[in-house]
Amino acid sequence: MPGINDSFIEKLKDRANIVELVSDYLSLKKAGKNYKGLCPFHQEKTPSFNVDPEKQLYYCFGCGAGGDIISFLMEIENTTFIEAVKVIARRVGLVIPEENPYEQQQTKARDRVFTINNLTARFYNYLLLNDQAGKNALAYLYKRGFQEEDIKKYQLGYAPDSWHALLKFLVSKGYQKEELHQIGLISKSKGNYFDKFRNRVIFPIFNVRGEVLAFGARVIDSADSSKPKYLNSPETLIYKKGENLYGLNWAKNSIRSNNYSIIMEGYTDVLTAHQYGIDNAVASLGTALTTEQARLLKRYASTVYIAYDADAAGARATMRGLDILKSNGLKVRIVSLPEDMDPDEYIKKEGGDAFRNFLKESLPLIDFKIKELVKNRDFSQVEERIDLTRKLIYLLINIDDNIERQVYADKIAERFAIDRALIKKELNKGLQEKDTKKKDKNYKNRYTKKDNETNTPNNINRIETIIIKQLIDRPDIREKVLKYLETDFFSRNNRNIIEYICKNPRFDVKEDINKLQDKELKKRMLAFAVANNNSNIINKFGVIFSKFILEVKKRLYARLQNSDNIELDELNILLLNFKKLSAYNRKEGF
């Protein structure tokens, strides 16, 4: 394991409680010796996410996500190994020993970017509040309704109308021009370096822990069309736009307590909402929402309200993002603001209570899509009615939930006077086509899976599963069991597990699972490790193993019966294997 020494990692995992940590992100229920819940890494309705408190491992039988407490935190927080270890160490009260040079370099690189960004935010904030250069920007913010306490809380700043103000400041602190260019604070042209943000109000973008990831910058004079209204930091070592949400660091507790979030489009929308007590608002850093953002929101609440202006809400890119939210298990509702008004303008004009009333009048995503489809249509025209009917049926086809689909089918039939039988016929046809496409898409994978399995009876496959589970869980039986086995005795998709255990007889799944470089092997190992154990199986393992030996012997014997069609080398191997199995003594204890 690169980085912190293995002994500390083992100590950390022994001290930590994976059930407690995972429970901070999702609801778990006891299921046998394990715990189960809805997987946070993919959308599902039936819990397939398992946590084994004894082995301190998790595994999802739906999507294959799995690992230990460290890999869980890395995945769900989108963080590095070292950062995850630090969080868990603080949680259990352990002090981390010195890292090796490689990890020190990686950690220092990220920490250095955070330090530069935090320093930059303070620099811009100081200029806004304390320097003559920030006078106009401060007046602009006061006019927009921001008070000094708001400016300090949100660390708003001002980038002066200068080519080198930030550059000179950061260079004086010991930072190199090129590294500042790499993280997007400084621009470069023909070998010359200069400030990226000039004469703009600065909005620092924070992660959920309150560290500065990046910056958004807005022009003060909106009438100046020669400049883009907003400039934003590029993606960097620490910042991925599609994996973050502006304002989540301030909103997360309110989102969790209210069980819903509100997504707005801009920085000022969010800040104004928070000023008026609507403190579960965040901004999407662009209207095209991503799967990562959906999963991020789902950690805190199950419902999301979309409060974009009318044009943005109806845009095709926005619609794709809303579908992503829904496909990740979020209930999506659309807030319809008055024409030509964004949340910032509306809240300032009408107040927070009026905006909350708009939330009550919001539309579920499907209703909003129907509203958009019928907008500006002339239903007296036959072509319009035909086109609308086809689009409405297409909308129904893409509703995954059967009950929801039927409810909307009835609703559409009644509202638009479309024959129910016609809707049912076209809907069934479309669903069949959709199902066929899905099957065609998965055919290759299914065929490969079948090809990777030997043609063995179901009973031997079940017994094989039990044996592999016991070999992973019980190092004490490995020597006795493995001396009778060859990897060829197992189905192809399990042979790599047997081969690995043969080569690594001291393998401990709890301590060593993250050392596996083969991702597919790791996934399959976790699936076996986390599966519930039946105490009856443990007690009768000798009988079960004997059945496996007998089944394999039958298979080998059948193969030997056709020895005329077998090469000499293969025949010798079959005979040796048959002899090995025949030496098994059922009375041998396990």
Per CATH, the class of the largest domain reads Alpha Beta
Distance between the termini: 33 Å
Number of strands: 16
Biggest sheet, open or closed, and with what strands and sense?
A: 5 strands, antiparallel
Structural class: alpha+beta
**Strand content bin:** 5-15%
What form results from the Cα inertia axes?
A: globular
Number of helices: 28
Radius of gyration over all CA atoms, rounded: 30 Å
Task: Work out the count of structural domains.
Answer: 5
* Helix amount: 40-55%
Record the strand order, biggest sheet.
Answer: 1-2-3-4-5
Catalytic activity: ssDNA + n NTP = ssDNA/pppN(pN)n-1 hybrid + (n-1) diphosphate
Zinc finger (CHC2-type): 39-63
Function: RNA polymerase that catalyzes the synthesis of short RNA molecules used as primers for DNA polymerase during DNA replication.
Region (Disordered): 434-455
Report on this structure.
The protein is of the alpha+beta class and 590 residues long. The chain folds into 5 domains: 6-99, Alpha-Beta Complex (DNA Primase, Chain A), CATH 3.90.580.10; 103-239, Alpha-Beta Complex (DNA primase DNAg catalytic core, N-terminal domain), CATH 3.90.980.10; 243-372, Dna Topoisomerase Vi A Subunit, Chain: A, domain 2, CATH 3.40.1360; 377-451; 458-582. The protein contains 28 helices and 16 strands. The strands form 4 sheets. A 5-stranded antiparallel sheet has the order 1-2-3-4-5. The protein is globular and about 90 Å long.
